[in-house]
From TrEMBL:
Lineage: superkingdom: Archaea
Species: Haloarcula marismortui (strain ATCC 43049 / DSM 3752 / JCM 8966 / VKM B-1809) (Halobacterium marismortui)
Gene name linked to the record: nosD1
Organism classification: Archaea, Methanobacteriati, Methanobacteriota, Stenosarchaea group, Halobacteria
Location of the region described as Disordered in the Swiss-Prot/TrEMBL record: 613-637
UniProt-recorded name of the protein: Copper-binding protein
Domain Periplasmic copper-binding protein NosD beta helix span(s) in chain numbering: 383-549
A Pfam family recorded for this sequence: NosD
InterPro entries cross-referenced by the UniProt entry: N2O_reductase_NosL, NosD_dom, PbH1, Pectin_lyas_fold, Pectin_lyase_fold/virulence, SCF-Subunits/Alg-Epimerases
Stretches that traverse the bilayer: none
Gene3D superfamilies from the UniProt entry: 3.30.70.2050, Single-stranded right-handed beta-helix, Pectin lyase-like
Amino acid sequence: MRPALTTVQVFALLAVALSTLVFAASFAVDTTSARPEPVAFDNTVQRGVTAADEQIARNRSISIPRAQVFYSQYRYVVGYVGIGQAVTALTEPGHEQQFGYPLAVYVSDYSDRPVRCGDDGSLRTATPPDWVEANQAHYVVDGSARVPSGPAVVPFADRDDAAAFTETCGGQIIDWETLKTYSFDLKQAAAVREQVGPRRSGADATVQAARQHRNRPVSVEVGTDAPTVQAAVDAAPPNTTVVVPAGTYNEQVMIDKPLSLSGPGATLDGGGNGTVVTVTADRVGVTGFEITGIGNTTVGDPTQSNDSAWDATVTTAYGNSDAAVTGRNASGLYVANITVETPASGVVLRRTPGAVVENVTVNGTADWQDGFMGVIGMHRPIVVQDSVFNGGRDGVYLHRADGTAVRNNAFRDNRFGVHLMYTSRSLVADNVARGQEYAGVVVMTNPVANAIVGNDVRHSGSGIMLAGSRSYIAHNVVVDTTQAMSTNADRSLYEHNVLYGNDIGVRASTVVPSNIVTDNDFIANDRHAISGPGPLRVYTHDGRGNYWSGAYDLTGGTGPVLAQSYSPTDSVDRRLHQTDAAVVLRAAPSVRGLRALRGTTPGFRRGSIVDRAPLADPANPETVRRLRNETSMEGAA
């Protein structure tokens, strides 16, 4: 039963609503002003490049053509890294309705500059390009010029300069109107949804291939054929199995040939000095051990690295932490059925394509600041599944590990459960996280096309925190967190998530709102949603919105959606699930006028969310019913 507001509180709410009306109207945009001039690109709201691609371009002196757009109903200048990104944004349905029409569009101008495509096709120029109006430029397409994300569209103010460029780099010259008819495959979020199944199947195939390295013909048994584990490994022929009987073995092991090392009931104790098992060969299996006595070095010394890559510091520092098992430049590594007690990392994998970690338990430090990562995956895709990570910094940390699958794991009392850095096109699915200090799943550094599906995060600082673009976030459950989910990722699809009993359900953080948010259930959150600066966020797609507990009071509809729109950021609507008086206040004439203005005045769209077709019933009824039953049982207990 929601408490009733006092008369004083009702009038206070009405005063807030009216003051917001006056404040918002003052931000209306003057669309009759003179044509704006280009600004420094660093002063734009930038979209369209992953942090990894940006670092690669900077490190290799690659020039990426850019665009900047001034919109009639948007207070910021939007900068697009890549001409294809700008074209896709400007031509997508509904874009002009949300941002207004483009007052001016400028693109990089490579005229009068020594521009070339190098031996590898990378676009380079000795001096930065200037700006030219998009409809005055000539564009070279389908040539050999490339940027880190793929083929480059290269603009020139002077057609003769464009023609000279095609003589060395190939391609054809087209104008702006023709360019806008081009289709740039940017792997939209809906396409990522279709990739969830194939990604699961790809992970299954990777696991099946790696499992072939767990059982080979036995060649050497420790204690019978060799005195130590290392002696047995040295003596064993390639593609055979070394059996380690039950017992404790105080040693560190190096495997430099394709072998299976099997030790059900055996303990490897490294003596507290460094990594216990190091693998440098392809097709190795390490199974069945308890591993203890791992060193406590969590960060290696980057000054000892000869790696000149832009990420050498991170690779060397994180990739050299002490661990139970470390794989380096070893494909197909299989690590399974081991238990680890570690003050540092559990499994470290550097450039190990096709590596699989499954049925592993990593017990880290009680205070995450004292420990490190359960699994570190770097530079190649891996699979981590059916494992348990207790304590330590991050359960699974990925760095430039595009295409990785992290699924069906349990995370307890870490800093982050799953932490993606510079990692795109990955699958994070069906994991359970409890008691994470900061977040169950966090995605940083603007990657693309990640799928975050079916995860269950509870009793954590935050639930699922995302950056990047063109990702798919669906069928997740987040309960009892400070903030269940953020929409920092842009051009992404959020659907069929259940956000239950959190302080904040969702934080709309992107300055350029471009996400689809539909068929989610917001239930019993203190605040269903909050929004940062930016134009109106519309959480409705194809006539369907989301279910907001409390919005069912907006009666009058007879179908699956309610008759009236709902705004979780509105000073009145956001209290509908907390007090009956908010329902009465919502019908006040002044508040109705406020809502009408919200839909017509561009300046008033700043920092608001509206669902134009809120659902009459939960979109995920079975999940909601289960959570309500669990909550009732906890209350009874």
